[in-house]
Amino acid sequence: MLIGQNIFLQIGGYHPAYSPPSYYPRPQRLSISWRLDPHIGITGESYFAVTPKACMGGGLLSVIFTAGPLRAYLNAHAHFLMSWAPFHFIADIGVSIGVRFQKKIWFVTVHISVEVSGHLHLEGPPFGGKVHVNFYLFGFDIYFGSHPGPPPPLTLHQFWDLLSGSSNQQGTGITLVVHSGYAAGHDKNVTPPPQTPWRVVGGQFKFLIQCRFPLSAVQFKNGPNANWTNVLSGNIPVYSKPMHSTQPIQSTLQVTIRKYGSMASVGSFTFTPILKNVPSAQWGKCEFPLPVCALRD
Q1: DSSP tag of 209
Q2: Which residue has the higher pLDDT, 204 or 169?
Q3: Rounded CA separation 282/163 (Å)
Q4: Residues 53, 241: Cα–Cα separation, whole Å
Q5: Are 141 and 157 within one domain?
Q6: Mean pLDDT across the chain, nearest whole number?
Q7: Which of 101, 107, 139, 295 is geometrically suited to a Cys-Cys bond with 134, CB 3.0 to 4.6 A?
Q8: Residue 222 half-sphere exposure, CB side, CA atoms within 13 Å?
Q9: What does the alpha-carbon distance between residue 138 and residue 157 come to, in Å, rounded to a whole number?
Q10: Half-sphere exposure of 239 toward its Cβ, with a 13 Å CA cutoff?
Q11: pLDDT by residue (tens digit) across 50-76?
Q12: Neighbouring residues of 46: CB distance < 8 A, sequence distance ≥ 6
């Protein structure tokens, strides 16, 4: 399913700890209900989803056996949720088995109820978790590994690596493309390499600036002694959810156009913004207490 620039797939809903945006659909769980024979019934539900921020899946299974005054049951559940950036996962698996018996014999009612259950919680990184065991009248917990807690925020360099898909921090993330106005004899299908002058025609020259990072402002200077002038100012604040930012990020692009070999004035340019949707999983505001913020698109 596609919403704006957010591509996601979901079947049966989301993890209980995940808070989807208001525009995501809220489907019912995929469910089964199977009567195996007069004594055994099986019910269950499941879900799976992949969003720009996380991957999740899980379900519930219940098996019930009844035979007169005897009732036995098995309940099992499993839930898994993994956040892409910063990488963090939680997983919960649990099983409970019980037997209940109730019968009136003469003037006495006999009631027997026994249940044994266990629950495993995993979280990381760093890896750690807890096992809870319950034996009807008493229970206990076993902790192992670390107690990771909420995922830490990404640094600016780590966030840039996430955007660029590499650990090379030397790239600018900016692409320049000539739209029209090449001089005669220039191959219009070949973009000049960086630091190479463009041979263009005055009055017809148009070019595109594509930036990997959303911009809050664009400044322009067309002469050696000119001051920077704001030519575009965005009215939508820019945040970084992987960095857990609650304040807008100032992202300013400065453009200088000069004649080859000099800083002489090249005349005026008109700048027109090209607006595009961006994933809120990367550029949304972190408004909620962790770890909820880290698990929300």
Answers
A1: E
A2: 204
A3: 9
A4: 10
A5: no
A6: 78
A7: 139
A8: 9
A9: 50
A10: 17
A11: 987 789 999 999 999 998 888 999 999
A12: 12, 29, 30, 57, 58, 59, 60
For residue 190, the model assigns a pLDDT of 63
What's the burial of 90, exposed, middle or buried (CB within 10 Å: 0-12/13-18/19+)? Answer: buried
What is the amino acid identity at position 269? Answer: F
- Paired with 211 in beta bridges are 174
Q: How many CB atoms lie within 10 A of CB 124?
A: 17
Residue 190's Cβ-side half-sphere holds a number of Cα atoms within 13 Å equal to 9
Q: How far apart are CA 225 and CA 227, in angstroms?
A: 7
84 to each of 53, 175, 197, 236, 239, how far by Cα in Å? 6, 26, 41, 25, 17
Strand 217-221, strand 252-256: pairing: parallel
Residues 114 and 101: their CA atoms lie apart, in Å, by: 9
Q: Which residues span the domain enclosing 250?
A: 153-173+212-297
DSSP 244-290: T--SPPP-EEEEE---TTS-----------------HHHHS---S-T
Residue 244: half-sphere exposure toward Cβ, Cα within 13 Å: 15
How is residue 136 written in tokens? 């009807």
Alpha carbon dihedral 275, 277, 279, 284, in 10-degree steps, equals 70
Instruction: Please provide residue 174's backbone torsions phi and psi, each rounded to the nearest 5 degrees.
Output: -120, 135
- The CA distances from residue 276 to 5, 66, 68, in Å, are 8, 59, 65
pTM beyond 0.70, yes or no:
no
Exposure on the CB side of residue 231, measured as CA atoms within 13 A = 17
Query: Which two three-digit tokens encode residue 183?
Result: 């001089």
Q: Answer whether 296's CB lies under 8 Å from 49's CB.
A: no
User: Amino acid letter at 106?
Assistant: W
Q: Are residues 256 and 130 in the same domain?
A: no
Amino acid at 63: V
Same domain, 80 and 132: yes
Structure tokens at 73: 């049951």
Within a domain: 184: no
The domain boundary, picked from 125, 145, 165, lies at: 145
